[in-house]
Amino acid sequence: MIQILLISIGGAIGAVIRFSIGKFTMTLTGKSDIFTGTLFSNLMGCFFAGIMLAWVGDNATISQEAILFLSIGILGSITTFSTFALESFQLIESGNFIKTISYLFLQIVISFLMTAGGYSLFQYVLGG
């Protein structure tokens, strides 16, 4: 139960950070199709995920609860893209080229197709 509470608190903190990044990005770039809050959230999330990966790898004294709070809670709420990047990096490091390509294909291509499929189905149901 404590793990769920820590993830929830981290998620709330991450959601506020994500919102703040979006607002800050709008003040810097205006309404841009490329330089969006999502882009900066993903980049920041990936950067901090890399720091966390190195920190956890070098520090065996970090509790599982702290890792859950930071990774699933805060970073997971800022972006799930950071998790995608971490998993991709770990697969690349494993040296298994087929698993890496399969994972990247499923994450990028199939996710895009699922988005297009959901959109198309919804439009069809509405008669659009």
Q: Describe it for me?
A:
This protein has 128 residues and is an all-alpha fold. The protein has a domain of 78 residues. Helices cover 85% and strands 0% of the residues.
What ranges have pLDDT less than 50 throughout 5 or more consecutive residues? none
* Cα end-to-end separation: 45 Å
The helix/strand series, from N terminus to C terminus, equals HHHHH
Instruction: Let me know the average pLDDT.
Output: 88
Please give the structural blueprint:
Layout: H1 2-29, H2 37-58, H3 64-78, H4 81-94, H5 97-126
Helix pairs in contact: 1-2, 1-3, 2-3, 2-4, 4-5
Which descriptors apply to this entry?
mainly alpha, 128 residues, single chain
Give a brief rundown of this model.
With 128 residues, the protein is mainly alpha-helical. The chain has helices at residues 2-29, 37-58, 64-78, 81-94, 97-126. The model has no long low-confidence stretch (mean pLDDT 88).
